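The freezer alarm interrupted the setup, so I double-checked each line after restarting. Inputs confirmed:
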Amino acid sequence: MFDEFLLRALLAGVGLTVAAGPLGSFVVWRRMAYFGDATSHAAILGVALAFAFHLPLYLGILAVALSVALTVASLSGRGHQADTLLGVMAHSALALGLVAVSFLPSVRVDLSAYLFGDILTVGWGDVIWVWVGSALVLGLLLWRWDGLVTATVNEELAQASGVDPGRERLALTLALGLTVALSIKIVGALLIAAMLIIPPAAARAFAATPERMALLATLGGAVAVVAGLGASLRFDTPAGPSVVVAAFGLFLLSALRRSRP
Amino acid sequence: MLIAAQNLSVRHGELPVLSDVTLAVSKGEIVTIVGPNGSGKSTLIRALIGLAPASAGSIERKAGLRIGYVPQRLRVEAGLPLTVRRFLSLPRRVSDIDAEQALARTGAAGLGPRQLLALSGGQFQRVLLARALLSRPDILILDEPTQGLDQPGIAAFYRLLEDLRRETGVAVLLVSHDLNVVMRASDRVICLNGHVCCEGAPEAVSAAPAYRALFGFDQDGVLALYRHHHDHDHDHDHDHGEDGHGHHHHHAHDHDNGRGDRTETRGAEQADV
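Predicted 3D structure, all chains:
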């Protein structure tokens, strides 16, 4: 019963949560949820570009996700209406990507695989890519951890302590772009932001420090991957959404705990 | 000299917030910046720290200057779990002994395990000051540190600052609009309203016409309408000072950091130059 494809799916999913737990915690703390949406929706455009120019898939996604993330980050710092701007970018990037894919001649792209992920079809190459990428993201976050948390609490405070908030923002933006590129095959462009936000949101009720919340978010995310994959096999439901539904279940449980202090 | 601004100007977009501000703080000094709401006090602090870019002029800091900064307000995101103890170790880890000592020094002993979000306003101020002290600063920069404290609390806070200065030689630059206590506790007062209106020892400043006009003292030296002192602009004071100040009521609650009423500031600036 425990087939190799399942092992690969589990490894890829758990590998993703290693990065998504801590990074998602920052997304929650800094209210960057919409920012995550904009970046991940742009991944579809990256898929289209990769096919059009015969580039490696992950390279196309990474390039577009990073450029959208950097563009949005620089625009929102300049007095643009951040919420609206992010909304415009998030949905336009998705629509542009879908239109661009439709222009591709001859290539028949299974879009749903990129929109919702297809974790059960990941190969060993994907698994390695996810773990290497996750390790990079986690390494980046750990390296800058105290500065990142300080800048998240208050940018003025960080600046006065010799931490450059702009540099920390850039680190997070890069980490986000990379994580989006990692997770496209696992949960898909539409649900990446869910894997970033739901596990930390569930972990919040059980954590007294930022570090604990990030750790619990990773553990919760891993539980959601296992439970979601299990449910997907048993009930023949789509894998990526099942993982997200499992994470949502954890969030509901934590909400119960929070309402009964 | 620890930190200085030379002919500093700062703009928010098109609007000039500070123009041609020159000031310096030396070792061991307590300097207070007073000014009405919207006079650019917080912007000046932000510029000194390096957060607001200068449109003209320059900021000089002594090489290796350690700043202990206490922001005007710090809104901690509800999604961020953070104990006082962890907060004290941001961004540099400090030992438990140092942390407990700093908390005790500012009257916040035992708060270490508490969540920042669960603190009262006064406790939060003490914790912020404790964190600022832990960096062993050359200068403490405090933006409205006594907001939300009652009169005895304010007096105690200034005594604490004086004690710290005596013990460690730290300089203190603070922004305030509590006129009475501030004046007595400072070595030097800088009266700001987009530019430096007047500057000097507390007694000299409180007698200066520019200061008295800015804060609305009448001829007898009585504060004409103390609780509205944020709202006065020079035009109204000079042109029809007798007809009361009630027409400014709509500004009275606007204790913000100077974004709300810039036009007023500019009006005052023109009147004063």
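Quick read of the result. The radius of gyration of chain A is 18 Å.
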